[in-house]
Amino acid sequence: MFTGIIIELGEVMSLRRKYSRAELTIKAPVVSRDATIGDSISVNGVCLTAVTCHGDLLSFDLSDETLRSTNLGYAKPQDKVNLEPSLRPEGRLGGHFVTGHVDGIGTIRSKTVKGDMLLLVIKAPPEVTGYLVKKGSVSVDGISLTVVDVFPDSFSVVIIPHTAGVTTIGFKGVGNLVNLEADIIGKYIARFVAKADPKGTGGEEGFMKLLARAGYVEGGFDEKV
What we know:
This protein is 17% helix and 38% strand.
């Protein structure tokens, strides 16, 4: 589990293909200080397991699925990547709960300067936009961001100067790919509502019935209302 608060910009040293997988090696002077083999580390929002730690170099095995479904499959030497070690029990939750399980790849559709801020519109697949709400949270390349607006096939976010300066989002431009993960809380709520009304006909009433059966609605639910 992660928070979406980036600790360091790492540098890709190599991506070596090995049959149906690949080995990704990253230079990470800061994150590597406390890293040990077996640690979970978020790389551009993808939860990876460190398989070797040598000085300031960290290596990870990438499955064929990870190569296909995230932008790490396009990584090349000297590319910068966002890094975050996993959340510790005593750590601060500065962003939102990020699992590191990417829901889809997005494409930066536009990038507009607004004073000292950046306004980004990101094209996203339905499996991401379906869970987004205005003022809600979304992970973009592992960065915890607040959704400004949601459109049928995209959404917008505002990037403050600090975030632009310490993450890849500051120098990525139109057409660049980003890993997207919707807020896990929204996914569970959507699943809960779908179970209450599997045919999509009952709406709020079906949801209230399920809450009543689970004991969350005091005094039950009057189906005549």
